[in-house]
Amino acid sequence: KSKEQWFNVNVNILMERMRHNKSDVHVLQWRHGCEIDSQGDDVRFSRGIDEYSYDGRNFLSFDDAESQWVAPVEEALPTKRKWDNVPILNQYTKGYLEKECVDWLNKFR
Q1: What would the pLDDT profile of 28-64 be if each residue is shown by its tens digit?
Q2: Alpha-carbon gap, residue 68 to 58, rounded angstroms
Q3: Whose CA, among 18, 60, 101, 109, lies 20 to 30 Å from 9?
Q4: Is residue 34, in this structure, part of any structural domain at all?
Q5: How many domains does the chain divide into?
Q6: Closest Cα to residue 67, out of 98, 101, 35, 104?
Q7: 17 lies in some domain
Q8: Which GO CC annotations does the UniProt entry carry (predicted)?
Q9: For residue 94, what pLDDT is reported?
């Protein structure tokens, strides 16, 4: 339930920033995952993906190499600053992408 609450709060903030109301339909897409390099049984993390798009436009993404959020549009800058100022969030995101995500891929390959 906490993830649902988090999404509801952040969707409302996003719609307010974009000057949208709830009577129109808008699409928020969240994509996260990882890419690996493998040779036989040896699996290595290659790249992580944690990104948000709004109405088909890139909105915010996580740069796992730099452990920070990237805001390609002005409306995403307040969220980038807020999330970058929560070190545990960036550490969790990086850790999930580099470890837990790879573990899940190994489990199902």
Answers
A1: 899 999 999 988 878 889 999 999 998 899 999 999 9
A2: 16
A3: 101
A4: yes
A5: 1
A6: 98
A7: no
A8: external side of plasma membrane; extracellular space
A9: 96
DSSP string computed for 6-72: HHHHHHHHHHHHTT--TTS---EEEEEEEEEEEETTEEEEEEEEEEEEETTEEEEEEETTTTEEE-S
Residue 1: pLDDT above 70? no
pLDDT of residue 12: 82
- Domain of 61 in residue numbering reads as 29-107
* Other C-beta atoms lying within 10 Å of the C-beta of residue 47: 13
Q: Is 96 domain-assigned?
A: yes
Backbone φ and ψ of 86, nearest 5°: -120, 85
In a domain, 13, yes or no: no
Q: pLDDT exceeding 70 applies to what percent of the chain?
A: 99
Which CA distances in Å does 4 have to 7, 70, 85? Answer: 5, 23, 22
